[in-house]
Amino acid sequence: MGCRRPGGHSLGPRPKGSQLSGLPVGDLPEERPTPTVDLAVPKVALAIGAHPDDIEFGCGAVIALEARAGRPAHLVVCSQGESASHGTPEQRKKEAEKSAAILGATIEFVKLDGDAHLEIRAAHAIKLAGILRRIRPSIVLASSPAENQHPDHSRLGSIVRDAARLARYGGIEELRASPAHAIDQLLFYSQTPESEPRDISPILIDISAPEIVAIWTRAMEAHASQTSVRNYIELQLTRARLRGLSAGVEHAIALFPNDPPIFNSLSQLNRSARLF
Ligand SMILES: [Zn+2]
């Protein structure tokens, strides 16, 4: 869908020899019609994480890539990491805010059941659906629903999947205040190799540009309360390096589409992984 640039209306050519305010205008360049341009609406990306560092570790480079391209990116964090072994909630929140700023994203915190207490409930899906209706993203990124990780991660993945569906339903009483919204694509990110969905073929996002890797690394370093106790950064960089090298680029992040992407024609398909 395109939008018309404001003021982009066409002006007809001025007749030669016409007078404006009594002054001869014959020597002025002929006014040409202003071209109109259909600008694509920027695709807003919204990433949702259970804890203050999940998005950054799982797909921070993808967020950085969007922000650097001028597309809005918004992060929604569903706890302040209050059950973590390291770092206070206040500290975790500050780290996440700093990290989001490094990525070029905006951030908000929403309270569900709290860290380590998240349960799959309709009320949570409706709450997140309300955020989807307010932000109106094209792309939603959520933690993988695959288990064998922090239980909040997989549960949040399921809740977000439900939220994306409820956001487009017109008759939900709690959501009547805002118009329904259908996202284009729900993609899952994973924080560990073990939590990658086994039953979904990934798409790969090429994050090889050195400045993107640098921004991503700084964003992860902002979570000092976590990175000081475990080498999370090296884990993510190594995963991206292995994904990238395996596919024929320097670094790549795997995202797992909840639904098969649709292309208008074969011409929209470009690169694929150059597997060894
Ligand atoms: Zn987490």
CATH topology: Rossmann fold
Number of self-contained structural domains = 1
Assign the CATH architecture.
3-Layer(aba) Sandwich
Shape, principal axes of CA atoms: globular
Compressed to H and E, one letter per element, the order equals EEEEEHEHEHEHEEHHHE
Give the fraction of residues assigned to helices: 25-40%
- Name of the CATH superfamily: LmbE-like
Characterize the largest beta sheet: strand count, sense, and whether it forms a barrel. Answer: 7 strands, mixed
Task: Give the averaged pLDDT, no decimals.
Answer: 89
What are the distinct ligands in this entry? Answer: zinc ion
Radius of gyration: 23 Å
Task: Report the total helices.
Answer: 7
Judged by helices, strands and strand pairing, the structural class is alpha/beta
Count of DSSP strands:
11
Structure description:
This protein is 33% helix and 16% strand. It has a single domain, classed as Rossmann fold, CATH 3.40.50.10320. β6, α2 and β7 form a beta-alpha-beta unit. It has 7 helices and 11 strands. With 276 residues, the protein is α/β, with parallel strands linked by helices. The N terminus is likely disordered. A 7-stranded mixed β-sheet has the order 7-6-5-8-9-11-10, sandwiched between helices. It has a two-stranded antiparallel ribbon with strand order 1-4. α1 packs antiparallel against α5. The chain is globular, with a radius of gyration of 23 Å. It binds zinc ion. Zinc ion binds next to loops.
